Amino acid sequence: MATSTSASASAAANKKVKVAAAGAKKTKTTAAAAAGRTALPARTTTTARKPSTAKKNAPKKKKQPVASAAAAKKKSKPAAAKPEGSKRVLVIVESPAKARTITELLKKAAAGGGGGGELYKGYTVDACNGHVTDLVGKRRDVPAELKEQTKGWDVVGVDVENDFEPLYIQNPKKKAIITRLKKASAKCDEIILATDEDREGEAISWHLLQVLEPKVPVKRAVFHEITQEALVKAFEEPGQIDENLVQAQEARRILDRLAGFTLTPVIWNFVAPGLSAGRVQSVALAMVVERERARLKFKSADYWDVVANVTAAGEPGRSFEARLVEVGSKTVVTGKDFDPDTGEIKDKLDASKLELLGSEKASAVAASLSSLEVLKVDKRRVRRQPPAPFITSTLQQESSRKLRLGVDQTMRAAQALYEAGYITYMRTDRPSLSKEAAGVAEGAVRDSFGDEYVRKGDAKTVKVKGSQEAHEAIRPALVGATPAATDTADGKQAREEEDEAGSGAGSASTSTTGGRFLHPTELPVEEDGGGGRGLEEQHRALYDLVYRRTLASAMAESEADFTTVSLGAGGVSLGDGEEVVDVVLKASGKTTVFEGFLKAYREEGADESVPGGAAAEGDDQETELPLLVEGGKVVCEDARPAPHRTSPPRRFSEASFIKELEAKGVGRPSTYASIIGTLRTRTYVNLQGRSLTPSLTGFVVADLLREHFPDFTDTGFTAKMEDKLDAIARGEKERVEYLSEYYLGEDGLKAKVASKRATIDPLEAKRARLPGLESLDDRCSILVGPYGGYLIPEASSGAVTGDDAGGSEARDDEGPGGGEEEEGEKKSSAVTLPYVAQDNLELLTVDLVERCLDSTYRGGDLLGQHPDTGEDIRIRMGRYGPFLECGGIQAAASAHVSTANKKDPTDLSLPSQPTPTDLLQHRGGGGQEPGSSSPDGETAGRGPHPPAAAVASGNDTVVYSAEDVIAFGLGANATEDGGGGGTAGNGGGDGGVGTWYSAVSLERAVGLLSLPRVVCESHPTEGGAIEAGVGRFGVWVRHKDSYKNVPAGI
């Protein structure tokens, strides 16, 4: 039964709308118009707002948006019904892409494609491009007529004293869109708000209602897949705006505003202006920082074991691997037995029952092994359940692991697939399919793999912590279906029973018959057009992932036999003068009995969220052991001692971070991508390879909040907040009640911040205390200010003392390694840290800090004298990494020009191919003045591409990035995501940048300092000399006013 969102309201509420609306018109012609914004009415309700003296926890009547007084009057005198097909209906969605897809499908319906017929010829679909309004963000944006009224508000955009009443303004960028929608709404007979079915979508619909003030009936339609059948059903059975969801979204938005506007000034005052704190942002940052702290505190430990290649009797060509596990009656120590903070055996373990092998004992055992006896054969069958279909978080995780897509990339691709009608709604936390979709999935499995691969019985799903389960799981959209008979009593009863059983998709489920999923090969490619629905390769890959995962969820479990064999040997020597003992080795194997769902989909085995985690042993790898019996003999073909070093906890990847957020109850599926995006935008967190690493600034901010405002770095506290917001969405808790509880009172945020500010030490607040750098405490302080990290030497350290400083004052130049003035500190005392070390704290070592201090106060390392002038050539460390200095000339120690196979390593002339002219035409270069910007146009203040260092050895030049230079010699076994390696924190001083310093050739330095130079006397077509030089971002060529960076590898 169709219902309208237009409802009657009290005279007070209607009056309130009129006054605010008049004010909005007035704003456009007053001084407030300079801001380009229009004030909106506060939220209208069926009852007037309670005064600020009202009890905060008093129950409220359920609120209902009002279109306008005229609409209310119109309802009392219904207009004559128009004949079917002549009614003009305006459908409003969020995005133009979604609008195009719906328009295309409605045209098919209007042409008789099913379910709609002539009815849909009068439908017009338009897009609002997301939110059309938001809370006013700055005091200067408050409309002129409201400035006096809002002047005393504690928080911009929120009237705390009046039940946390929000002040919304129209987005100035949406002015043309709003004008267009108003014109369209004036010409239609009915409006359907078809925004997404979640809190944000509900809020968008509510604000559209307030902005457009329509004089026609307004309906709310929801669907979780964009197909002709789903649209027909949604338009035939519209509903109302869910006021609880609107309340929850508004409460979340206000809560974020209260937290941000209250905590951010603390960060500004005590660390640096321009930074921020947030309700979810801060706890997420703390999670990344704590993982990094564990890595920096980590102490590595070395241990050995023995690996043997074993052959069963009678099968000489078939060997398998066994590993030493026991020596005598003691268990051989492995990595899990060490304390990561001390590098010693864990205290809780009984050391008398453990054997820590060194190289000598391991070698002696390996040399003694020959014949082994089979002590025990343990065989067990393991059944593995198929994975549930994707929800938002698991899609993001698997897309990251399998497709190497970032969270933002995944969500953009999923949004495009949804809007094009290929998958269901991508923001969901319900890991189950509707009954119809499950049936289609089973049919696809049966057709593709056979009956034996179809799941027996119902799927077992686990409720995700804090999940709302408003939509079914992400799956391919159903195509080629026909609407089921939903208007009958039996049909309605079936859907209600399905919802009660928990297998349906709620009110948004599409009841269809005879549908199917598009096979990935059926998707149109981008160049095909496909009526505007062609897909990029990235989108097709994501669809394929969703398709296979959906089918897997409907498939039978896999079965595999796991075999573990214990092998023993007696009389094994532990070395000269050592005892002779019995040893035990173990071998494991796996044999697949039935593939089941693995036929369609294999999950990743690595669990990156576990500290030091690695791929699950034998996860999907076949290692079939020969048939062995207890008491039998096997031959050790060879054995070797195997050294190991414990690894620090892995850094979070985007995928593992989302998994951790979900496990801790921090954020919700729709917010995970924005959480990571905010941390990266604020430069609190960087992406090193595929790992999330906190910056020095992020570390300091997290520590300040952890010490003084621990609730805002506590995952448990944040998870409880999310639960209460969910309760508001379910209508179980009042918005005002919760906001008052959070912000006001003795234990509220406002009082906490006010009392804590007086206890914060300004210097300690900006000090970075990194594990492993404690030895520097009496020599310098590592601080963070407006320009990032810097060093201040302690007065007692003697860093600057007359003759020790080379007879000159500390450097304050602005060259490649210049210093910067920091808040009240003299320029001569502040030493800037290299940006690459600020972004990757494992590079911020004792050695690097000492080099920075030495570079600033003693002029750096003397490389030699210039052969022509006799002046000293020094290597110094600056904000962009190492650089060279000779007299008044400075040059970044960088070059992309390879000197391999050249007789003279000082020869920096460009090779014959490409020519200087070719380089000037190279599209990949920056085309920017050297030293002013990076090759991709980012500002030189802190571009993502630090200079590369050319390290000469003989006639070859190896090109390193600045990060490689600083990391050179640390001994870290870096992995792709920066999570592995045997580094023992950042306290080491051996090797490091000193190793690189000693590797730089004097000849190479002379060549770099001689630039710029003319490399071509005359441009072949335009005339004028072509010069080459070296700057912060490598070698560049210049012709007149045109600059190009030389591509790497040339």
Word description of this protein:
The longest helix has 28 residues, at 243-270. The protein starts with 10 loop residues before the first helix and ends in a 5-residue tail after the last strand. Strands 9-10-19-18-13-20 form a six-stranded antiparallel barrel. The chain contains 28 helices and 35 strands. The protein has five domains: 11-45 and 62-241, Rossmann fold, CATH 3.40.50.140; 254-296 and 668-759, Orthogonal Bundle (Topoisomerase I, domain 2), CATH 1.10.460; 302-385 and 566-592 and 618-645, Topoisomerase I, domain 3 (Distorted Sandwich); 392-553, Topoisomerase I, domain 4, CATH 1.10.290.10; 840-1045, no CATH class. α8 (243-270) runs antiparallel to α19. β9 (302-312) and β10 form a beta hairpin. With 1050 residues, it is an alpha+beta fold.
Oligomer: single chain
Enumerate how many helices there are, as a single number. 28
**Which spans have pLDDT < 50 for at least 5 consecutive residues?**
1-80, 482-513, 528-532, 605-619, 796-827, 894-962, 964-984, 988-992
Helix and strand content put the structural class at alpha+beta
How many E strands? 35
Mean pLDDT across every amino acid position: 75
User: What is the CATH class designation of the largest domain?
Assistant: Alpha Beta
- As a percent range, the share of helical residues equals 25-40%
Total number of distinct structural domains: 5
CATH fold field value of the largest domain:
Rossmann fold
How far apart lie the N and C ends? Answer: 71 Å
CATH architecture of the largest domain: 3-Layer(aba) Sandwich
Dominant shape: globular
Radius of gyration: 34 Å
| Portion in beta strands | 15-25%
If strands are numbered along the chain, what order do they take across the biggest sheet?
Answer: 9-10-19-18-13-20
